[in-house]
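Typical record is below.
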Amino acid sequence: MPQSSLTLGYVPGGTPAKWARIWAERHPAIPLTLQPVDAADAAEAVRTGAVDLAVLRLPIDTTGLATIALYDEVTVAVVPVDHVLTAAEEVTAADLDGEPVLRPIDDVVTWTAGASVQHRPETTQAATELVAAGVGVLIVPQSLARLHHRKDLTYRPIGDAPTCAVALAFPAGPQSELVEEFIGIVRGRKSSSSRGQAEPAPKRSAREKTMAKQAARAAAGKVASVPGKSKRGRR
């Protein structure tokens, strides 16, 4: 039975809205469900079939998965609005030396700087509340800083920190037509194309070929029989 719907998982801070809009325009009769998934569970959700594809962050265990790079996020330091680090538009790892840095259990940034706080909050959102309380600095991808924005907090890009890669993941191997179609949308394929290639012209039958040859001969005979036709034209 053909697949009748598609489920796209996305991690906190993921931005699938653009692709969902294009999907709705091209396939209004085929539902696309957007399913939030925890960063730690995203890859397994694809492997088990809980979602058909997922927008997630790398690096992760990609066993059994294929991935397409989407974009890279700037890594930022989240601090109170009156923190000394807000004096500059951008900070460096050296600026974080000696700063207590919170690392939540669901941390998605593998790069570290500063002095890690011994207590690890369960979630990035909980860590954000501790930043507001003055417990420490939080290092996250920029989208998570925006997601958990508070009026008493701000963030600064960390110039020498590695970026956070975001990718589309789906099961390795042959894909369903709907998954292939969504991958095409992500890759920027136009609606008029078929997997990036033009449709081949249909093959003609032997009868159609014979009729085409006869029509071509008849047309050539009519041109040759026109009176007064010469290379110099009519006088």
User: Anything to note?
Assistant: The chain has two domains: 6-72+165-186, 75-162. The domain at 75-162 is CATH 3.40.190.10 (D-Maltodextrin-Binding Protein; domain 2).
